[in-house]
Write a structure and sequence with these properties.
With about 90 residues, the protein is mostly helical.
Length: about 90
């Protein structure tokens, strides 16, 4: 489908700049952005898909992932709740 739209100059400039930065055609990028907006936010499964692929490729076990998450959670807690210094 072909569609002609009028964009405010600043929006057109931002679209062209973003497309150029990505080495893409502005019309192609506009179509992708509109499609994403119409589909709505990604599902949780779509968001997690790259992470799940990495985990599968790593061969990590559930126990190893559980230990890693606990370690990271504890580290984050320590960073946000530093113990008082003497």
């Amino acid at each position: 489908m072909s569609l002609t739209i009028t964009l405010p100059p600043d929006v057109e400039r931002a679209l062209r700049d973003r497309a150029a930065d990505a080495g893409r055609d502005a019309a192609e990028l506009a179509g992708e952005l509109i499609g994403r907006a119409l589909r709505g936010p990604p599902t949780f499964d779509e968001i997690l898909a790259p992470f799940r692929r990495e985990v599968a490729a790593s061969g990590a076990t559930d126990a190893e992932l559980d230990a890693l998450f606990h370690e990271l959670r504890d580290e984050a807690w320590r960073q946000n709740h530093p113990s008082p210094r003497p």
